[in-house]
## 1
Amino acid sequence: MARRALITGISGQDGSYLAEYLLGQGYEVWGLARGQANPRVSRMRKQFADVRIVRGDLLDQGSLISAVERVQPDEVYNLGAISFVPMSWEQSELTGEVTGMGVLRMLEAIRVCSGVSRNGGTARGEQIRFYQASSSEMFGQVSETPQNERTSFHPRSPYGVAKAYGHFLTQNYRESYGMFAVSGILFNHESPRRGAEFVTRKVSLGVARIKLGLADELRLGNLEARRDWGFAGDYVQAMHLMLQADKPEDYVIGTGRMKSVRELAEAAFAAAGLDWERYVVTDQTLHRPAEVDLLCADPKKARAQLGWEPKVSFDELVAMMVEADLRLLSNGDDPEHDSSWP
Ligand code: NAP
Ligand code: F7E
């Protein structure tokens, strides 16, 4: 019988790549979808007809228990979150509820449905394996570079704080109930399916608009921030590998290389044959209340124990995104861009 996976956050960037990957591995894939008529879920259904949808919301404990009861998954990937860092200052409570407490609700749904009592012991003798989407944002103001699985946390946003809560809770369910519950501490990963509010996609869309004569400038915030950017398609394979390991452990996933936002802009404009300095305008209003200046992964453990390595380089990623957005805009499409998230 095919193994069954339940993915929260199915309509997001990682949800789509993970669904595609697991379908290719022969899994029966279920996605948790919220809302009455969620347009992102409809798009997902069109893109991946083989993904089955179950209703549920990370804010609603009962719906998660029903979803787990219905799907009877072998593996649960908790990717659902408020994931845009600036939004976490504007809607801190909601971020805490979805990104933080949502992890507790999902773990509880698994614990209850697999018959694990508060005193331990698995009634049905089966284990649902659980993956939590932890984030390098937990490192925040970093205490060392590069960051590994033992680096301390100093989150700099309500998002980072909520992720740290989910991270420790996942560890705690592993220790308290013997659950196969792991966290992937993933550094920034991007793709042509990245939301338009994140800086890489904002830049690739901006470059495409300028190249096609649809815009004449691109407004950006802090050009000096440095990130470790990889390709989302590579990173979802690491999520799957973590759940196939003999023992439940946490892993750092990234490339081990840092680039600044300035270098990102330079590379993206160059990919379209343009000089970034002619078009990029810096805008103080796009700076954050507290910035994470730099993040750089030490992914040695994942390489040694999971055999995982990123395949797509930074330059290939940037070129892939710019080319995809040039094609998209040339076809007359432009992803909805909520003007409140510049
Ligand atoms: P994304 O594109 O923003 O997707 C977020 C997903 O969460 C969407 O499918 C969204 O569904 C869902 N969601 C939001 N509120 C929900 C709720 N109340 N109940 C259930 N689902 C809800 O994020 P991503 O880039 O794919 O990232 C996936 C996960 O990895 C997130 O947890 C993110 O925080 C984490 N992460 C991402 C990165 C990265 O660089 N991409 C790095 C480290 C960690 P709707 O369509 O219903 O809004
Ligand atoms: O910002 C700077 C900004 O919004 C990256 C999420 O997936 O990765 C992501 O979080 C950097 C920051 O991603 C603009 O100040 C400059 O330093 O693309 P971002 P993020 O905040 O790093 C982590 C690992 C996650 O877990 C999150 O879910 O770019 N920056 N100018 C800008 N950023 C944006 N968005 N827009 C600008 O105009």
Note: Confidence is low (pLDDT under 50) at residues 338-342.
## 2
Amino acid sequence: MRRLLFAANWKMHLGPDDTRGYLKTFRARYNRREDRDIWFFPPAVAIEAAVLAVRERTDLLVGAQDVYWEPKGAFTGAISAPLAFQAGARATLVGHSERRHVFGETDEDTRRKVAAALAGGLAPMLCVGETLAERDAGHTLAVVVRQLAGALSSLDGPTLSRLIVAYEPVWAIGTGRNATPRDAATVHREIRAWLTGRGADAPRVLYGGSVNAKNVAELLAERELDGVLVGGASLDPEGWAQLVQTGAA
Ligand code: PGA
């Protein structure tokens, strides 16, 4: 059975109180389906509230939006993989385009963060994707492969099997523009080939960038997509419950 993953990236929205209210509404509105997992990436301060609110539900999981690569120390403002794990997170985003473009993270930073996440018991969800200028120059696949190689080259097949890759074209994030399902599939095929060529077993590749309840079914009809990573359209619990229920498995 194809198992879809729906990931909600709340970015810098929804604190602990908001999170409790959100997840109460979401759980009331979402009729559990056995063919899908739903992961929430709240801000760090709301991880624990989210973990408590999804307990006893094996299909719901909470992750961090980012972790620093050192496990502990004098790094004011940062959280580490062991700290996120202690709060109940079991996954983390790595290299989201806002980390790369707003905070200046490099491929080398993503490599260290993926390694730190794995060492700390968190499943890394590595985000990759090209800018509009890179796409227009015909460099999409080269950029994505460079980002994969930069973050993952030193990992063996069993380790690669523990992580997820999210393809998010930068020009599609928060803009209302999507890649077509066919364009996305071309990139997904390349990502999957890169991972399986290094021994990954059945890697999961998600698509992200302006996914919403209207376009999700068309995107997921494309078999190369194993799920979606969603920002804006995940912020309203009723809309997110509807989105998660949509989309053929
Ligand atoms: P968006 O964000 O759905 O608001 O475009 C996606 C993301 O940044 O992960």
Note: The domain at 4-243 is CATH 3.20.20.70 (TIM Barrel).
## 3
Amino acid sequence: MLIDTDLTGLPVLVVGPPGLTTSVVRRHERAGAVVTLASGPGDVTQEVCNRVRLAVLVGPAAGWASVRDALAGRCPVVDAPVPAAPRGRVVLVGAGPGGLDLLTLAGVRALAEADVVLTDRLAEVGDVARLAPGAEVVDVGKRPGHHAVPQGEIERIMVERARAGLTVVRLKGGDPYVFGRGGEEVEAAVEAGLPVTVVPGISSAVGVPGSAGIPVTHRGVSHVVTVVSGHVPLEEEQAQALVALGGTVVVLMGMHNLVPLTTALARAGLAADTPAAVVERGFTPDQRSIVGTLTTLPDLAVRGGASSPSVIVVGEVVRRSAVWARRVGADADGIAMDGVA
Ligand code: SAH
């Protein structure tokens, strides 16, 4: 339930047993109301009744006769029935790579309805707060000098808040299900008996190469794209399977393993002059691409000081890109600085 009316400054009394009123209070506060909370009939004093301009009786409070009598004739009284527990829910929202510009409309709507947002996207906490006014924004992500909240703890917070009747949005980079532990979080919500939905996001695996003008598939060039994690080096058999499959290889989380990755592909028979690229910090003002070949890319990346987050793309599709066309000197120096191509 979203409150569309602007209640700025309106003194509102919310009456109801503890635990049932949290989300009603939050929604009225989000609409600008100044909320007084009464958890039992004894809290509804004369002074309170004189002051408030609207009273909301939540769940069983609608049947508290002494409260109705005390409020009679003083202000409008609204009943807010409580649906059967659990009332809370979990929504996993993919934020896309980079800033929040690539959120879907469904994601924007989920944020607008959120009571709590658990976010990894530290740089944009202010933007999150703007899209989720009134929600508590909890930062559970990584940043230098700050340890990420462990996965189990994130799931515990998510379940606990939703069980308390709140709409919890878990905002995740890219798509929740692409190397994002979205599956585990959905399982945790399901095990807790909570309704859970997933709003997909644009994955960096496709969106970030695209932002540099690299099409991950191209008619007549590549009709296969394989997305792999570079978190650990490729096993020999995996590299052989990838090369046998052909097409485009997209590696996420692979910058610290760029040398073993390219070496494994070369050893598995991929041509040394296969075009390859690193696209760094996609969709940010610092976006940059480094293009070269399977052989030259690791060295170019070191010279260019490339770091995470970056997407590595290997395959003939790189030759079709704007950054390839703009590269500076074919073999000598494949570094192409670019904005969003
Ligand atoms: N769920 C995310 C991926 C999480 S794994 C998604 O669908 O995009 C994190 C990895 O994603 C990073 O190591 C990097 O390889 C990639 N990545 C995410 N955002 C990026 C960005 N803006 N620019 C480049 N790479 C990015």
Note: The chain has a mean pLDDT of 90.
## 4
Amino acid sequence: MSEALLQVRNLKKHFPIRKGVMRRIAGQVRAVDGVSFEVGAGETFGLVGESGCGKSTAGRSILRLIEPTAGQILFGGKDIRKLRKGQMRLMRREMQIVFQDPYASLNPRYTVRQILEEPMIIHSLFGSPTERQKRVAELLETVGLSASRMDRYPHEFSGGQRQRIGIARALAVDPKLIIADEPVSALDVSVQSQVLNLLDDLQKQLNLSYVFIAHDLSVVKHISDRIGVMYLGQIVELGESDQLYENPLHPYTQALLSAVPVPDPEVRRERIILQGDLPSPANPPKGCYFHPRCKDCMEVCRTQAPEWKEVKPGRFVGCHLYD
Ligand code: SF4
């Protein structure tokens, strides 16, 4: 892997559960519970798991849009959890986010020009209105939209076009890293691949790094260099995308992958149906968090949490099957 631009170490985000008139803390929701991974310059790291597994909370915690409970987030070698507000604001220029819902994430009262100018104004870039307008036109062309539409409102665009505007807004301040939080899951399947191709092209042109968050392994497959599979606030398997698809090690990854359609009619993959729902992160099961749903569960899994092991160079798994 190229030199790590982002290093996330043992990241935790716990939300207190308050009860009673005194609002005493009665427990913790362990939404993110010790997540570690790295992303190199120009690399895409896919973070995958069922909804509610903590992947979006991890993404927001990395940007400090919500304050992490513990852990280290190094960006370009700097621990961003130690930055003060003003320093963090400067750092945000380098780390942007694209949200899942292009309908909700764009201000409906702003024109596209205003939406794209806003981050430039916040970060004091492209000082004059003429320079900003030139940059807005450039950004729209970059994401495949006509600059002539900059004075239109978000509702005048389709879902895919709105997500392109969201991407243009993230690019407006010239970031090095984009956290793409389920950027295509609100879009029609026919439009998804266009937006994925756009993200891929932009990465090549601008040497961007992505943390690509998705609930669907088929979406992250082509865009990710490496993938981390998340379950109940923890990464349970991590490895290069091709290896993970060819030979998933963790029973949870195997179940997720078994649901991904294979384009080759000769290849048949047995569908593994996951039993039950994702347990509550406020009250995770003892031992391996996955054991109540695991087809390979052994006695040890009910009482002892598996260790995180590197089973091959760059290939990690947390499962007693590999002890
Ligand atoms: Fe299944 Fe045990 Fe591995 Fe957990 S540790 S995934 S329960 S085999």
Note: The chain has a mean pLDDT of 93.
